């Protein structure tokens, strides 16, 4: 894996000042050390009231930084039998949406950055993504297969409005008539309807919009810089009216938090034009576990113990279960109950649960750009 040309420096971490409980517009204020950290830092009182003084001082919230990366490759192969695609494309590392539950947060550890605050404030943009994709698709050995955009980052997070990397990728896929699916919780996908709609007519694209909650107050802390819940539904409607096959992802499903909304979300999505649906119970891999539990204590203290107890009931008594076959659906009576609710609600609202089958027969290798030599 290539690394961005960036030397990290600590941002407002616990080693610098008393960590605030929350930062406006951020999912986490905690620059939690990543799991590869060699040094363990802690605060101490030097006898001069330093900690009290720093607690009283005002600290400017961290700004979003974007670092450029020239990726060696852009397609990532999937090795998990739980996931229904063969390759994925993530135009960015990190995500400004700041969803506290994001299972991809631990990937920032490989960059020597915090999966907490750094994940949503220190982003990496793969500026040559379209070029690398073109080279890959033009290779004589390449065979088209199921491809998904935005699996470990939102391809339409705010920085995309300026950089347009996702649009460049879709332009290459459209030229090659390469089918793909896309998952997002951003209304920014509407910008690219001019590319998506013609591909939909050729049965070469499907989009899933993530609707975690219909409660705007909950969304404001759970996923602070994502689109508001009503905009998610408007995006589903816009895609549907443009003829793009669209589904809804009610993920992650968190007991006692957004789980009671399951049927209402599916009904609202179906009314907006969604044709398919899926849902995944909350996963808490690596650093996501302490980050999420810290968030619960700050924002949902009355429910925190119940939520974690139910999650453990669904994960074999553990906070997280990474085993293939169970990690995406859980196990036990409560996991089965949610599965039955999902199945019955989808039947009631006419939502399919299988992926939209795409047409790979029209694929054609894209032309290499002038002056560009193939690597193959």
Ordered list of secondary-structure elements with their pairings:
Elements: H1 50-56, E1 65-69, E2 76-77, E3 87-89, E4 92-93, H2 117-121, E5 122-126, H3 129-138, E6 147-149, H4 160-163, H5 165-176, E7 180-184, H6 193-201, E8 205-210, H7 216-222, H8 229-241, E9 246-249, H9 262-272, E10 276-278, H10 288-299, H11 304-314, H12 333-349
Parallel strand pairs: 1-5, 3-6, 6-7, 7-8, 8-9, 9-10
Antiparallel strand pairs: 2-3, 4-5
Helix pairs in contact: 3-5, 9-12
CATH third-tier fold name? pyruvate-formate lyase- activating enzyme
Shape: globular
Level-2 CATH architecture = Alpha-Beta Horseshoe
Distance between termini? 19 Å
Largest sheet: 7 strands, mixed
Unreliable sequence segments = 1-18
- Alpha-carbon Rg, integer: 21 Å
**Number of folding domains?**
1
Protein name: DNA repair photolyase
GO molecular function: iron-sulfur cluster binding; lyase activity
Keywords: Lyase
Pfam family, one: Radical_SAM
Structure report:
With 376 residues, the protein is an alpha/beta fold. The chain has one domain (57-349): pyruvate-formate lyase- activating enzyme (Alpha-Beta Horseshoe), CATH 3.80.30. It has twelve helices and ten strands. It has helices at 50-56, 117-121, 129-138, 160-163, 165-176, 193-201, 216-222, 229-241, 262-272, 288-299, 304-314, 333-349, and strands at 65-69, 76-77, 87-89, 92-93, 122-126, 147-149, 180-184, 205-210, 246-249, 276-278. Strands 2-3-6-7-8-9-10 form a seven-stranded mixed β-sheet. It is globular and about 65 Å long. The model is unreliable at 1-18 (pLDDT under 50). InterPro entries: Elp3/MiaA/NifB-like_rSAM (IPR006638), MJ0683-like (IPR040086), rSAM (IPR007197), rSAM_sf (IPR058240).
């Amino acid at each position: 894996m290539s690394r961005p040309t960036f030397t990290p420096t600590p941002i407002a971490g616990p080693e610098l000042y008393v960590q605030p409980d929350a930062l406006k517009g951020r999912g986490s204020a905690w620059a939690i050390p990543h799991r590869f950290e060699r040094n363990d830092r802690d605060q101490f009182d030097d006898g001069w009231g330093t900690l009290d003084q720093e607690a009283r001082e005002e600290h400017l919230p961290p700004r979003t930084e974007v670092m450029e990366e020239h990726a060696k490759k852009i397609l990532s192969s999937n090795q998990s039998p739980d996931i229904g695609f063969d390759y994925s494309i993530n135009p960015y590392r990190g995500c400004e949406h700041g969803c506290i539950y994001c299972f991809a947060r631990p990937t920032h550890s490989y960059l020597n950055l915090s999966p907490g605050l750094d994940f949503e404030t220190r982003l990496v943009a793969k500026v040559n993504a379209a070029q690398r994709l073109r080279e890959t698709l033009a290779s004589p050995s390449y065979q088209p297969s199921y491809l998904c955009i935005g699996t470990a980052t939102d391809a339409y997070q705010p920085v995309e409005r300026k950089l347009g990397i996702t649009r460049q990728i879709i332009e290459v896929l459209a030229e090659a008539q390469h089918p793909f699916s896309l998952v997002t919780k951003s209304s920014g996908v509407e910008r690219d309807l001019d590319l998506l709609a013609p591909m939909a007519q050729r049965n070469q694209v499907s989009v899933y919009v993530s609707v975690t909650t219909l409660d705007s107050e909950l969304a404001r802390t759970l996923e602070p810089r994502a689109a508001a819940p009503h905009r998610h539904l408007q995006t589903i409607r816009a895609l549907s009216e443009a003829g793009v096959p669209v589904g809804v992802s009610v993920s992650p499903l968190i007991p006692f938090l957004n789980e009671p909304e399951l049927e209402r979300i599916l009904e609202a999505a179906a009314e907006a034009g969604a044709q398919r649906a899926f849902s995944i119970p909350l996963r808490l891999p690596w650093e996501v576990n302490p980050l999420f539990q810290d968030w619960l204590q700050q924002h949902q203290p009355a429910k925190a113990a119940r939520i974690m107890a139910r999650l453990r009931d669904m994960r074999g008594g553990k906070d997280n279960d990474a085993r293939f076959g169970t990690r995406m659906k859980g196990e036990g009576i409560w996991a089965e109950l949610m599965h039955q609710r999902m199945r019955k609600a989808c039947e009631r609202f006419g939502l399919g649960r299988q992926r939209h089958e795409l047409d790979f027969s029209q694929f054609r290798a894209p032309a290499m750009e002038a002056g560009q030599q193939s690597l193959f």
